[in-house]
Design goal:
It comes from Fervidobacterium thailandense. The chain is of the alpha/beta class. The chain has 2 domains: 209 residues, 3-Layer(aba) Sandwich (Rossmann fold), CATH 3.40.50.2300; 133 residues, Rossmann fold. The chain has 12 helices and 15 strands. It starts with a helix and ends with a strand.
Length: 372
């Protein structure tokens, strides 16, 4: 990450931007609880920038600021990007909990904000200047409920979620609603129980789940480390049911912390190098492997696509003015490395879901579930 740190330092210390440069703001959690997600997302943006550093015949300057994994700072950073740096558009942060306050500021100031991986519906809701290149939690929750019922033959489920995290609260709710609807049984979600972000002991919640004896356990943790700890403690208590999660599970920390406890777990995400999502996927994966000596996950792929979708809109608008960019984004039909990207009436991407599992200590591709 040394090169990233140097780039950020140079950008923040440089206040004398050239007159003809197009400034694009980037907000990510590069420190704090969400730092892994922010750093991986920044990799994707950097790769895209290296490929296309100019647009409309003008150089692009990335203004990268750390929101420190803090909701208040997430809003402050977006304010700085708009008021101090006068950016034309903003590439948003990892984590819906950070994306919601930042998107609110951008929309209020009528500056385009593109969220690469925020799945909570509130990120774009009633915000005409805010877009996202990923699917949303109502779809993701339904996908995992369908998978549990159709592939795992589950008739009952338990849900344990982080009450302090917007993403976790939302995804838990949508999974529960979909599971009840699909089973036709209002009592099919036998336990719906919360924990507080930062907790280390989940014994009370897991004991309640063990007593209810569900067929599957859904853990839409906002922080991947929480999911790994819950999995470990669940296995220690003798819970043997399949564990299910959402896209935040798609990080190496899940296996590093969870170990054998997450073996056989399933989760939904938006990208896998082995999924046939786009003609552009293979080339991106090869470049990423060469640069970082590992396979890319969903975060660098979506961040890469977010940058490319923005450049595509600026090119078609023939302008770097936020209102012109916004209008161009509305008619986007772009094939990215994570698949085809179009926006619905809420400016949410219509995307497919990728289901993955953990097998022999590695992430494995299972299947693709088509978007609406």
């Amino acid at each position: 990450m040394r090169s990233l740190a140097l780039l950020i330092l140079l950008v923040i210390l440089s206040f004398g931007f050239a007159a003809n440069e197009i400034l694009i703001g980037v907000t990510q959690p590069l420190t704090g609880n969400y730092a892994m997600g922010g750093q991986l997302s920044l990799r994707g943006i950097e790769m895209a920038y290296e490929e296309i550093p100019t647009v409309l015949g003008r150089p692009i300057k990335l203004v990268i600021l750390d929101n420190k994994s803090d909701k208040i700072e997430a809003a402050n950073v977006v304010t700085r990007l708009i008021e101090q740096f006068k950016v034309s558009a903003i590439l948003g942060t990892y984590s819906s909990a950070l994306g919601i306050p930042g998107a609110e500021i951008a929309n209020r100031n009528k500056v385009v904000y593109i969220a690469p991986s925020n799945t909570n519906p509130l990120v774009t809701k009633d915000k005409p200047y805010v877009f996202r290149v990923c699917f949303i939690d109502p779809f993701q929750g339904t996908v995992m409920a369908k998978f549990a019922i159709q592939h795992l033959k589950a008739k009952t489920a338990a849900v344990i979620y982080d009450v302090s995290n917007d993403y976790s609260v939302g995804l838990a709710y949508y999974f529960r609603e979909a599971f009840i609807k699909l089973t036709g049984n209002p009592r099919s979600v036998v336990t719906y129980i919360a924990y507080q972000g930062g907790d280390q002991d989940f014994t009370a919640q897991l004991t309640a789940i063990k007593k209810a004896n569900p067929d599957v356990i859904f853990i839409p943790a906002g922080i991947v480390g929480d999911a790994a700890l819950i999995a470990k403690q669940a296995r220690e208590l003798g819970l043997k049911q399949p564990l299910l999660g959402g896209d935040t599970w798609d990080l190496p920390q899940l296996i590093e912390i969870g170990g054998s406890a997450v073996e056989g777990a399933y989760y939904s995400t938006m990208f896998d190098p082995r999924a046939n999502l786009s003609p552009k996927t293979k080339d991106f994966v090869e470049k990423y492997r060469k640069k970082y000596n590992e396979d890319p996950g969903y975060l660098p792929a979506l961040a890469y696509d977010a940058y490319m979708v923005l450049i595509d809109a600026i090119t078609r608008a023939k302008s770097d003015k936020p209102e012109d960019i916004r209008r161009a984004l509305l008619t986007t039909d772009y094939v990215g490395v994570s698949g085809r990207i179009r926006f619905d009436q809420n400016r949410d991407a219509i995307k497919d879901a990728v289901i993955k599992t953990i097998k022999n200590g590695k992430f494995e591709f299972v299947t693709i579930i088509k978007g609406e």
